[in-house]
Design a protein that fits this description.
The protein has about 425 residues and is α/β, with parallel strands linked by helices. The protein has 17 helices and 14 strands.
């Protein structure tokens, strides 16, 4: 097959994304963008329509999808928009920090077709074995232990003291990671997630996960890692490391930011303090609003057209990333006019073959809801402790993440787990 693939009849002309210059592309990795992404989305939509030219890093072009219908069209067409980044990866500058998060790996995030189906089935089966009742008790233990460490202080950075260690502890226990190994894995993974140029961190992450696989082969348990290695698909140890890395990649950063962004909404929005009958809306309502308006993965579901492709009167070049913005798509005027209702949250979880599995969604909701509820039950009088220019959002091309979540509260005694 040669020449460009047409998804719709070509109109005269048509914008060529490949010809956009660095001056016309919008940098979505900057602090300025992070401070006002919704304003940027509106300006991009007004200028470019559903497909906007952006930079993921200096001089690294991509296309950001702002239209809901366009996003669904792309994400449900893996033939023209596969998730395998290898052709792009060969062209980017060496040492580019974002490659650590985008590079090809033989796991469910970066493969297609039968290979993707194989890895996805293994991961889904491993997650399905998580007992939600046991997980809830695990979250409560970890949450109470962390809250007890700062509840008498009267102030804390919730992101540093509570949210981040809670997510790492719960996920580590769920995959069966021993505490000593988790102590090594956490800083290494954090460096990878923060996209620091740190080859040592990437190597340490893979080495630690390889040790986890070896430990579970020697002594199986009731955990995700054991279920991965005992699966009938019989993955190799190297494949198991890549599946575990995908579990951590999908399970830590998005969940941490979902919890933090939900706490921020509850702290700042009086709707979540009380309502007309004197009761605050449930945590689930706040989670759903965050997923609709400020999802933790601000730009995700990355695909790479293997040939030039025409869509929405825009020629997308071969082997250049195309990312979906759930927040922008959920606020697409065409979609909101058609729905006549509150925003949905569906694209926060992706769509098509690479959509977040139902098992992962339910576990994420459980962890996020329990984390918020445990904190608010223990410290109901939390107050934000922001300066005039805060909260500050962490720059980056993918996440919607706070740099800190400082709060104050009346000092409280420690708790015990019921």
């Amino acid at each position: 097959m040669t020449g460009p693939t047409r998804l719709q009849p070509a109109h005269r002309g048509g914008r060529h994304a490949a010809t956009e210059t660095s001056e016309s592309r919008i940098p979505i990795y900057t602090a300025e963008f992070a401070a006002d992404p919704h304003g940027c989305y509106r300006r991009m939509r007004a200028r470019y329509g559903s497909l906007a030219p952006v930079d993921l890093a200096p001089g690294v072009p991509a296309t950001l999808v702002l239209g809901y219908r366009t996003a669904l069209r792309i994400l449900t067409d893996p033939t023209h928009f596969p998730a395998d980044p290898r052709a792009w990866q060969q062209k980017v500058p060496a040492g580019l920090p974002i490659v650590a998060m985008m590079r090809h790996r033989p796991n469910t995030l970066r493969t297609d077709d039968t290979e993707h189906e194989r890895y996805r089935s293994v991961t889904v089966d491993a997650l399905a074995g998580v007992d939600p009742h046991a997980l809830r008790a695990m979250i409560a233990r970890a949450a109470v232990g962390l809250i007890n460490e700062f509840c008498a202080d009267g102030s804390a950075d919730l992101l540093d003291r509570y949210v981040t260690p809670l997510v790492f502890r719960v996920l580590g226990e769920s995959v069966g990671c021993p505490p000593a190994l988790a102590d090594r894995l956490t800083p290494a993974l954090t460096a990878v997630f923060d996209m620091r140029t740190d080859e040592d961190a990437a190597a340490e992450t893979e080495a630690a996960l390889a040790e986890l696989v070896a430990a579970k082969r020697a002594e199986p348990g009731d955990d995700i890692t054991t279920r991965l290695l005992e699966h009938p698909a019989q993955l190799s140890d190297a494949e198991l490391v890549d599946q575990l890395l995908a579990v951590y990649q999908a399970g830590v950063e998005p969940t941490r930011d979902l919890i933090a962004n939900t706490l921020l909404l509850i702290l700042l929005d009086p709707r979540f303090t009380t309502n007309q009958v004197g009761f605050a809306p449930p945590t689930r309502a706040a989670l759903e609003e965050v997923l609709a308006t400020d999802p933790p993965l601000a730009h995700h579901s990355i695909v790479y057209p293997p040939l030039p492709v025409l869509i929405e009167d825009v020629w997308l070049p071969a082997d250049q990333p195309v990312l979906v913005s759930p927040a922008a798509c959920h606020d697409d005027p065409e979609r909101t006019a058609a729905h006549h209702s509150a925003h949905g949250t569906d694209l926060a979880w992706g769509a098509g073959a690479h959509a977040c599995p139902a098992q992962a969604r339910s576990l994420t909701y459980l962890l996020a809801e329990e984390a918020v509820d445990q904190l608010l039950d223990a410290l109901p009088d939390l107050r934000p402790a922001f300066g005039p220019d805060e909260p500050v959002w962490r720059p980056g091309p993918f996440q919607r993440a706070l740099t800190a979540l400082p709060v104050t509260f009346p000092p409280a005694p420690g708790m015990t787990v019921c």
